[in-house]
Design a protein that fits this description.
Its EC number is 2.1.2.11. This protein is about 40% helix and about 15% strand. By secondary structure, it is of the alpha/beta class.
């Protein structure tokens, strides 16, 4: 989205305006106040307190174990750090699958306790009733279709979605169901670029791609992947824009060496007993 205007809070209505104007939407995950402040200052439009925190904050093997009680403190921190970006929080696995009323209870708790602008949940046609119930209660919802990490076992692992005629038709049906249910935007994850572009052209709401090509209305990445903080395998659709992990490792190693050698702290970095010194 354009930043030529004063830095006003990004609202839900701005996503439809950006799509209509052909302005790309920028989004990143965030899990703490410092990253939120930095990304907000950089002009990122949307910060997602993703259930990816399960992996990058808590060290779980998948997103499935993370709980509301673990995500809520992170969402609080991000909302404290962001003054412009729209902050969205993921509903974790198990917090909305029992139906619309459980989903609404979960969404209300997130809104009341964290101050986020909207919530995100996975699923297309299967989640339409849930999305509609939350939206009818006045809570904005972002959808998430294609590869949905909370359903990784049912999908057979990290598998690209939307391939072939049947896959493309299902993806389009899911996208339209999310839109019809009242979502303001939808994430398309691990989808062939040409199919994602067709979905984007068909929908009135904004599409946010992750591994879905350049034809989406915006893009999102897990920030620890994009900026080189993650260890191990990085998804093939990620571009590493920096290597923060290497920089931090070098700094920590230098600090260790300086402490061990007695070089830190030096005289300037120490106090004396002289008054007013």
């Amino acid at each position: 989205m354009s930043e030529s205007a004063p830095r006003k809070r990004v609202r839900i209505r701005h996503f439809a305006r950006a799509k209509a104007a052909g302005e790309k939407i920028t989004a990143l995950t965030a899990y703490d106040v410092i990253s939120a402040q930095i990304f907000d200052e950089a002009g990122i439009d949307l910060l997602l307190v993703g259930d990816s925190a399960a992996n990058v904050v808590y060290g779980y093997d998948s997103t499935l174990p993370v709980s509301m009680d673990e995500l809520i403190p992170l969402a609080k921190a991000v909302t404290r750090g962001a003054t412009r970006a729209c902050v969205v929080a993921d509903l974790p696995f198990g917090s909305y699958e029992r139906g619309p009323e459980q989903a609404l209870d979960t969404a209300v708790r997130f809104m009341k306790e964290t101050g986020v602008t909207a919530i995100k949940l996975e699923g297309g046609e299967r989640s339409a009733a849930v999305i509609r119930r939350i939206v009818d209660a006045g809570i904005p919802v972002m959808g998430h279709i294609g590869y949905t990490p909370q359903a990784e076992h049912g999908l057979g692992g990290h598998v690209v979605q939307g391939r072939g005629d049947d896959g493309a038709a299902k993806l389009m049906a899911d996208a339209l169901a999310v839109q019809e249910a009242g979502a303001f935007a939808v994430v398309l994850e691990m989808v062939p670029a040409e199919i994602a572009a067709q979905v984007t052209a068909k929908l009135e709401i904004a599409t946010i791609g992750i591994g879905a090509g350049a034809g989406c209305d915006g893009q999102i990445l897990v920030w620890t992947d994009a900026f080189g903080m993650s260890a191990g395998r990085i998804p093939s659709f990620v571009r590493m824009f920096a290597n923060v992990r290497e920089t931090l490792l070098q700094a920590a190693t230098t600090y260790r060496d300086e402490v061990r050698s007695g070089g830190f702290p030096n005289e300037r970095e120490s106090f004396t007993d002289a008054p007013n010194a």
